[in-house]
Each structure stands twice: as structure tokens, then as C-alpha cells.
Amino acid sequence: MKAKRLLGAALAVGLGLAAITSTTGAAAQPKGKSAAAARPAESPAMKKKIALSPKGIAWGMSTKQVAAVIDKMLDAAYVPRYKATSPGVRMRALDAELAEEKSAFRRSRIDFGKLPTGVDATPLKGEYTYLNKESMMTLSREGMKRHFFFIQDRLWKIIDEHTLGEGSPRGKDYQSAVVQLAKIFGVPGRVIPPDPDQGRYVTEVDWKDAATHFRAIERGETAIAFAYEDLVTLSSLDSLRPNKPVDANAIDPVVASAVRKDEPPAPPPSGKPAKKK
């Protein structure tokens, strides 16, 4: 609730034309030197510390530890309903509802092993890899989704999905949401254009503090995602992901070898005719 109030206050204050230009103008730049010059080389360091939620969540937690934190969060969320419910049938029904929410979170776990998953067809594609001991758990409640990403059973990324539109605490559109964040963080973010080769399919704006990298991810006209990433893990991702994604458009090695055999020999560098065999 505190975060929602901060976002609402930022919307009321606004940043003015200069901030809007700094956070969105770079996205309109063409790729190449001009675009690179328009973007900071690194994520801007914010003036405030990024707080993870719910309370008790920390980078490096195991799936079991995260589930235990979610249990406590759900217990607290159900307290008002328990106070308003008399012992008996309704109380037992409430017990069952709470137990089901806790169980649903545990059942939401997806392991990115050998077989493709349905997550590949969602905007989360590019946030994980296969065969690198990665997994994801999702908490869905009160109209919001929060995805917890693990690598080697250690929490390293959280992605929250939010709606946009008139009256939304996040803003009416992506640009206004980014402006709000710049006000809250105390500095305009770095605009990063899409780059499918890097697993990035939409525009992002990012910031960081001493421990966490934050990305505001465009999700179309009516949605936005906030990604929180552990900087320590982020700096080691290349070594943590030894199995690289296979390029579906790459030529099969057997075919490539056959093509090379059929190619005529290259002319000698001296320009002299090749010796006959």
C-alpha cells in the first residue's frame, strides 16, 4: 500500500517536459552510433534503496524459503477475515481457502529442463534459459501476478505484472509510468530498445542501487512489468548458464559440412593458378 501511495503522489507531481524527453527520447533514436550516444553506458544509480516485497524476501533464498515467506504473507492477509468469521463451518471453509492458496503457490513451480514449457508463449520469454537449473514460481492474487525466478535453487529475479490505464496507480500508459518511477528514484532511467539476440523483445527502462537492478518493461498499451534482479547473480549469469539456447534458424552442422564439400576450392592468395591434383 505504501508503494501505491508513493506512485500516486509521483503521478500528481509529474516531472515536466525535460524528464519525459530524457526517458523516452532515446527510444526514438535509430539504431547505431546515434542511439548508443543517447543512452548512458550503465544503469543510473538511484537515490533510494530498492525494497523487495513481501517482507522477508531476500536474494539467494531457496524455493522452500520463499514459500515459507509467502505462507506468512498469506496468514497476515487472512487475519481480518478470520476476525470477522465465527468458529464453525465458515471458519473451516476459510482454513481450506488459505491452505489452497499456499498449495497453489507451491504447485505453480515450473522447471526449465529439457522440454519446452508454455511460458515460451508469454511475455516472460527471454527471462530464463533451459538446462541451466532454472525454475519459476508464480503468486496470483487480487489481480496481480508476481513471478519468482531461481537459478540453482537460489532466488535471483522477481517480476511483477501491473495494469495501466486511467485511474491506475502505475499510470495511464508506459511513458507516464516511467516518468513516475524517475520521480520516485530521483533520476531518469536508461532507455534500452528491443534486442531479440539478447532475449529482449520490448523497450525497457532501467535503474539500479547497490544490490538490485530494476527494469520497467513495456507490456503494450495496458500493462507494464517491474523486474527486480540480484546484481551479484546478474554479473555471473554467463557462467551460471553454460548451456546456451539453440538458434532455431541456424544451419544443421551436417548440412553445413555437406555444403562446404560441394563448394569449389578457394583461389590461392598469390593469384597463381592452383596446382592440378
UniProtKB/TrEMBL annotation:
Q: Could you name the domain of life of the organism this protein comes from?
A: Bacteria
List every stretch annotated Disordered: 252-277
Segment forming the signal sequence: 1-26
Keywords in UniProt for this one? Signal
- Can you say what this protein is called? Secreted protein
Gene source species? Sorangium cellulosum (Polyangium cellulosum)
Q: What is the lineage of its organism?
A: Bacteria, Pseudomonadati, Myxococcota, Polyangia, Polyangiales
